[in-house]
Amino acid sequence: MDAHAGKHFPRPTPVSRPYWEGCREGRLLLQQCGTCGKHQFYPRIMCSHCNGDTLAWVPASGQGTVSSYTVVRRPVSPGYAADTPYVIALIALAEGPTMMSNIIGCAPEAVTVGMPVEVSFEAWSEEISVPKFRPLAAPA
Question: Whole-model pTM above 0.85?
Answer without folding.
Answer: yes
